[in-house]
Design brief:
The chain has 20 helices and 5 strands. It has 2 domains: 2-14 and 49-361, no CATH class; 376-463, no CATH class. Strands 2-1-3-5-4 form a 5-stranded mixed sheet, with helices on one face. By secondary structure, it is mainly alpha-helical. The chain starts with a helix and ends with a strand.
Length: 464
């Protein structure tokens, strides 16, 4: 219920955007009609959406969109978070034979700040993959080879960077199963397979379908121009890399202390406990790397979907270690202390953080979360009157509402649009306010558009 109050309410009140739910919902429409998606929601030139992120989950979830339309991915994400919690419970109840501790670990997972920040940031496929990781642990523990392989494959097809993370998870588990030759060797094969998959997808497949013939998401220029160069730089310049890991290495404004805030949250959430079993820290290395070496300071901190991968590893690692404590009273106190501190971090992310995010998207305990200051019900009614087969250009918050159609563009892309939707109350991204106003003035002065509706700062234009 709490997850729905964040995610579903945000969508209903126009707090979800063109990227990523708008573009992905448009992809659901195309996939459900047996077509590839061309990324024209946010790109002026057509390009297969898989060139941006190699995400096959959207193809699998597409049939659900026939029922749930623009809410599909948000519902799927909530369901998979619940499935992830079930995986935490099943794994720890089976491996520790301690149901109470397994329930506490599940509670920790459900309360972890990274889950809430991800829900407040629309939909992202790495949330789905992260929530399946506990099931990889579970079926491996039960020695079920087929289901372990199926879960691994399912995680890999979600997003290209998941394969690199799974390689390190397999590496950590190799140590866990070091005395079981068959499963140790199986994990070694999985490790190699994950690395090969990562290389093939990012270096060969995605560039081959990209207009620029390149992988678009290597944003680590301080380390080099490719993943290979980045690895060489980290190994050959360990001191510089160590400093970059903890500091504002881009000297960006507002970048100071974001990494410190991340570490404070993780320390309070029990990260130091994993020192007793370093293999779990090893599993988190690529997550730390992709966050802290990134050029974009938004990646460094505790916001958006960029902390969800910590949730399953912390929940499993911390409570496996606590489960080995001989003193049951101390075990109980420690487990509840971790949960309370975890909840404290989550409340903090809702209340006050360094990076300036829209807190109304996550503060489910405040009235402002459930209102927008303009008549959303009436606006929704007008949006529903736009024909389903019409081509639309819309401001970002309205793209996600109208995306379940053949063609829709994020304004200022207009091209062959028949309707234009915008509001003076919404953010003008990807333009600044001056550029946005200039583009709108240019359109209204062209005499090519009729004003279909204009009320409370919400405007719908129709092409003559």
């Amino acid at each position: 219920m709490v997850y729905a109050l964040i995610s579903i309410v945000n969508h209903y009140l126009f707090r979800t955007y063109a990227l990523d739910p708008g573009a992905y919902t448009n992809a659901l429409y195309d996939y459900s009609h047996l077509n590839w998606n061309d990324s024209t929601v946010f790109k002026r030139g057509a390009e297969n959406l898989l060139a941006d992120h190699f995400d096959l989950y959207l193809i699998l979830f597409a049939p659900l969109s026939l029922i749930f339309k623009t809410y599909t991915l948000l519902i799927v994400q909530i369901v998979f978070i619940l499935i992830g919690g079930m995986g935490i419970y099943k794994y720890l109840a089976y491996s520790l034979d301690n149901e109470k501790l397994a329930i506490r670990a599940t509670l920790f997972f459900f309360l972890f700040y990274g889950v809430y920040s991800a829900l407040a940031s629309d939909y992202h496929s790495n949330v789905i993959g992260a929530c399946m990781v506990p099931w990889f642990f579970y079926f491996l523990k039960k020695k079920n080879l087929l289901k372990t392989i199926l879960i691994l494959v399912f995680i890999l097809i979600g997003k290209e960077n998941m394969s690199l993370w799974m390689a390190f998870i397999c590496l950590g588990l190799i140590y866990e199963y070091r005395k079981e030759v068959y499963w140790r060797n199986f994990l070694a094969v999985c490790f190699v397979f994950c690395l090969c998959y990562f290389f093939i997808i990012t270096a060969l497949v995605m560039p081959s379908i990209s207009n620029a013939s390149a992988y678009p998401h290597f944003h680590y220029s301080a380390l080099g121009s490719s993943y290979g160069e980045a690895l060489v730089h980290i190994i050959s310049h360990p001191a510089d890399s160590f400093v970059m890991f903890f500091t504002n290495h881009t000297n960006a404004q507002q970048g100071d202390y974001l990494k410190l805030e991340l570490f404070i949250f993780l320390i309070l959430s029990g990260l130091p406990i994993l020192i007793k079993k370093p293999q779990y820290l090893l599993m988190l290395l690529p997550i730390f790397g992709q966050k802290l070496f990134h050029e974009n300071i938004a990646m460094w901190g505790i916001h958006s979907q960029y902390s969800i991968e910590f949730a399953p590893i912390l929940a499993i690692g911390i409570f496996v270690i606590l489960g080995e404590m001989k003193n049951l009273k101390m075990q109980t106190i420690s487990s509840y202390a971790v949960i309370v501190l975890c909840l404290t971090c989550t409340i903090r992310i809702m209340d006050s953080t360094l990076y300036l995010n829209d807190k109304s998207k996550i503060r489910v305990y405040q009235k402002t979360h459930y209102e927008r200051g303009y008549p959303t019900a009436e606006i929704r009614k007008k949006l529903n009157e736009i024909p389903e087969n019409a081509i639309v250009s819309a401001q970002s918050p309205f793209v996600s509402q109208l995306a379940y159609r053949d063609k829709i563009y994020e304004f200022p892309i207009v091209k062959d649009a028949e309707y234009l939707v915008y509001s003076i109350y919404e953010d003008t991204y990807p333009l600044n306010e001056q550029s946005f106003e200039r583009e709108i003035n240019k359109i209204t002065a062209s005499n090519e558009w009729l004003k279909e509706w204009d009320q409370d700062g919400f405007i719908i234009l129709k092409k003559r």
